[in-house]
Amino acid sequence: MEIIKQFELSKEYLESLQQAIEAEDLSFIQETLDGVNVADIAALLDELSMEEAIYVLRVVDPQLAADIIIELEATTQHRVLKELEVQEMANLIELMDSDDGADILNLFLEREREDIISHFQDKLKSDQVLELLRYDQDTAGGIMAKEYIRANKNWNVVQTINEIRRQAENVSKIYSIFVVNNRQQLMGIVSLKRIVLASEDTKIEDIYEEEVISVPTHMDQEDVAEVMRKYDLESVPVINAKKKLVGRITVDDILDVIREEAEEDMQAMTGISDTVDEYDSVIKLTKARLPWLLIGICGGLLGA
After folding, report:
1. What pLDDT, on the 0 to 100 scale, is given for residue 182?
2. Is the pLDDT score of 107 beyond 50?
3. Domain with 60 in it: what CATH number?
4. Domain housing 214
5. Per residue in 117-149, pLDDT tens?
6. Taking a C-beta distance cutoff of 8 angstroms, is the pair 144, 172 a contact?
7. In the prediction, which pLDDT does 23 show?
8. Do both 124 and 156 map to the same domain?
9. At 36, is the secondary structure helix, strand, or coil?
C-alpha cells in the first residue's frame, strides 16, 4: 500500500524549495516531495513561477510528473505543457492512463495533437489515445479508459491469472474482471475472489456472472454518472454498437464529471440571474449530487 505523506504548504517550505531550485539541489526537491499527494504538489506548483514549476517537473520521477500534470487546472496544464519540448510532452502523456492522456491532448489544436502523438514511442498507447479522441468529450467513450482487465470465457483459471498479471501492469486499480467471447463481446463479469477460490482447471464460463451493467460509447456522461450512482458501481464497462468491450469508466472518472457539472451549476447561478427561485434551483441540484459525491470518494479510497 502506498503511504501518503502529510504535507502542509508553509511559507518556510516554499522559500526553502525556491532556494533549492535556484541552487539546483535535486536531493532536497526529490526527498521532500517523495510520498506527498500529487494534488498537494500540484497546488504547490501554483505558488511557483512557471520556470520554477517546470524545473520541479523535470527533476522528479517522470511518473510523478505525469500524475502532477493531471491534477493541474486545465489552463495551467496547457501553459506548463507548452513550455516543454514536444518529446517531453509525449513521454509524460505516455505515462498517463489513456483517458487522462486524451484529456490533455484535447487542450491542443489538432495539428499540435498530431505532432505530439507522432513522438509517442508506445504504439499501443498511441492507438488507445487516438481512439479516445474520436469520441465526444462528454460521452461515455470520451471519459472511458482503455486500461482494464478482461478474460476470455474459454480460459481456465491458470490462464486467466497469468493474463491478469500481464494486463495489471497497465491498470492502477482492479475493480472487476470483464469476461468476453472470442469476438471480444462483453459476456459478463467475474470477481477475483471466485477466480482465486476455483480450481486451476475451472473454466471462466463456469464461474462468471452473466448479469452485468454496461453503458454504450454514445451515452452522455451525466447519464453514466446516474447509472453508476443508481447501481452503486465502482466501475462500469463500455461497449460499442457491436457489443464489443472497448473500455471502462471508474468512480474516479465520474467524480470528475460531477465536479465539472457542479462548477457549471455555480457559474449558472452567478451568471444568469439573482432571483431566489434560480438560486434555490442550483442549491437543490448541488445537494442532490452531494450524497453520490461522498459515496464516490469513499469508494475511491476503499479501492486504492
Report:
1. 97
2. yes
3. 1.25.60.10
4. 150-248
5. 999 999 999 999 999 999 999 999 999 999 999
6. no
7. 96
8. no
9. strand
